[in-house]
Amino acid sequence: xxxxxxxPRYLIKTRGQQVTLSCSPISGHRSVSWYQxxxxxxxxxxxxxxxxxxxxxxxxxxxxxxxxxxxxxxxxNVSTLELGDSALYLCASSPEGRNTIYFGEGSWLTVV
Amino acid sequence: ELKVEQNPLFxxxxxGKNYTIYCNYSTTxxxxxxxxxxxxxxxxxxxxxxxxxxxxxxxxxxxxxxTKARLSTLHITAxxxxxxxxxxxxxxxxPGNTGKLIFGQGTTLQVKP
Lengths: 112, 113
Description:
The structure holds 2 protein chains of 2 kinds.
Chain A: E1 5-7, E2 10-13, E3 19-24, E4 31-38, E5 42-50, E6 53-57, E7 64-68, E8 74-78, E9 87-94, E10 102-103, E11 107-111
Parallel strand pairs in A: 2-11
Antiparallel strand pairs in A: 1-3, 3-8, 4-5, 4-9, 5-6, 7-8, 9-10, 9-11
Chain B: E1 4-7, E2 10-14, E3 19-25, E4 32-37, E5 43-49, E6 55-58, E7 61-66, E8 71-76, E9 85-92, E10 101-103, E11 107-112
Parallel strand pairs in B: 2-11
Antiparallel strand pairs in B: 1-3, 3-8, 4-5, 4-9, 6-7, 7-8, 9-10, 9-11
């Protein structure tokens, strides 16, 4: 069974640009959530989608947005990138009931 | 607001020794997760604890949950170098199914030969 797949794995962007990250959940999982990991702030929740609906959103500015498609694949977008957006962005998927939550390998974003 | 605190944050131990990592959380939750992260890697699921008194074991790791004390422990028995990693506990925001996990700061475990 394939795991959670995130693309791209590594990317470098310039301040002011925007970026889109993609996540394909495990087959059959309808819940997809996104987290940001930095050395200073640790792991922080960005948002969660279930059946194309955003169910919960973390405390991040509006520059961070996401969506989920009918096949459960999800994207997150960060506009007007800032240096502080440099982080590992992790996507997680879970089945209904959330008995286990599986994380992808992550997308390493560096903003220069 | 739900807060999750782990201690210690850093643990250096000799192979063959036992130790415990503690995870405290501040408000009611109905499930707790433990993850392992190796440097530069993603999070690997270790345990999911769903009820008070739950205990799960895998190899040299054993996790338990006391929902009344809002405390989970991850016990390491006879540590080996391969267990060197950062361990995170995470708690589901309550009531559950909000999709939001609150993570502890992580405990970096270094096992010396």
